[in-house]
């Protein structure tokens, strides 16, 4: 098979890139290891930056998001039972959009299918020749091969693309946090119309949502804990303990429809390109979810790669392609910094000294009282410019 861009991974990065290229008449094939139903069953991000919203518009897949998504102009921070609001509009003119990653992915699959886009599911044994360039794989044991001009590695943290970059070229930077997030999805109305990021002696908690009848909640937990050991009742009780009284009292509880534990990690791979292979999204970097930056940073990579490919095909200009890694990484590191900072500020660390705890409280107090500190949070949270 021949195509212009072979895309490995049918998550949000791969699908968005494929759809944007399609709008510009550039052909691609998406190779996905799982089934579409499996990809859509993963409950992940819920907050979209304006940059991603604009990319969805450019890709022609924004209609349902505009109808069903919720623009938010602020978020609540709760510290030891007292809350204050970070108003995004004081420092930026941009809201964020509350719209689930599952829905983004669903809309992208629908658009690719409507356009007759080629997606191969349940591919195995993917081998990348970054210089050929070509991609070989099997489906149901049958060998296949795609010849292409470029390869986009959009296959997430556990994919094969990153590992194709030779070890003596590839540098990896990593920080693993000593806790995870236990998350539940429940068919209950959200406790508040805006997200609540809460910290207390008992640890971090987050109240988020998908819509008026579907809530997403997280609590910081030990990585040794097991989902099976957390009954719904135990989860609700612990969440309530970590929220200000007015929110805890307002919490509507119900059975969970999904419950899982996610580890927290910061990770960056440099460079993000090798030969004709270009990494996008979780394949190249991971952030802890505290700043809601994972999907959004994947989208900024897609923005840079899509525009670089467009310039190449439309103007014969390879400057964007050549500089992709450097351009993408400059923004990636800023999202890493924000996610690391917000995580460090809001969680209880098991090895935290009494001094460390005082520093955290002083910084939170500074944030509560300083418009400039709130502006810095807002600018990063709504998303730095591309
Ligand atoms: P994905 O979504 O992991 O998709 C990669 C796809 O590649 C496939 N794949 C392969 N295909 C072919 N061959 C192989 N060898 C392959 N290996 C893997 C996989 O099956 C998969 O379909 O990466 P992508 O597209 O880069 O998207 C990244 C985002 O999914 C991720 O950054 C976010 O979900 C992170 N994240 C959040 N990000 C935000 O921006 N805002 C949030 O509010 C937010 N909350 C979250 C999150 C992630 C979480 N978890 C569980 C990790 C909350 C959670 C709990
Ligand atoms: C979510 O809704 O899943 C969510 C929202 C904000 C975050 C992380 C996750 O920072």
List the helices and strands and how they pair.
Layout: E1 5-8, H1 12-23, E2 28-31, H2 36-41, E3 47-48, H3 50-58, H4 63-68, E4 70-72, E5 74-79, E6 82-87, H5 88-91, E7 96-98, H6 101-114, E8 118-120, E9 123-129, E10 134-139, E11 142-147, E12 150-153, H7 161-164, E13 171-186, E14 196-200, E15 203-211, E16 214-221, H8 232-242, H9 245-250, E17 256-270, E18 273-274, E19 277-279, E20 285-286, H10 294-315, H11 319-322, H12 324-346, H13 354-369, H14 371-382
Parallel strand pairs: 1-2, 1-12, 2-8, 5-14, 12-19
Antiparallel strand pairs: 3-7, 4-7, 5-6, 9-10, 10-11, 13-16, 13-17, 14-15, 15-16, 17-20, 18-19
Bound molecules: 8-demethyl-8-dimethylamino-flavin-adenine-dinucleotide and P-hydroxybenzoic acid.
Descriptive account of the structure:
The chain is α+β, with helices and mostly antiparallel strands and 386 residues long. The chain is 39% helix and 30% strand. It has helices at 12-23, 36-41, 50-58, 63-68, 88-91, 101-114, 161-164, 232-242, 245-250, 294-315, 319-322, 324-346, 354-369, 371-382; strands at 5-8, 28-31, 47-48, 70-72, 74-79, 82-87, 96-98, 118-120, 123-129, 134-139, 142-147, 150-153, 171-186, 196-200, 203-211, 214-221, 256-270, 273-274, 277-279, 285-286. The protein has an eight-stranded mixed beta sheet with strand order 6-5-14-15-16-13-17-20. Strands 8-2-1-12-19-18 form a six-stranded mixed beta sheet. Helix 10 (294-315) packs antiparallel against helix 12 and helix 13 (354-369) packs across helix 14. The two termini are 34 Å apart. It binds 8-demethyl-8-dimethylamino-flavin-adenine-dinucleotide (RFL) and P-hydroxybenzoic acid. The site of 8-demethyl-8-dimethylamino-flavin-adenine-dinucleotide (RFL) has 36 residues, from helix 1, strand 9 and helix 10.
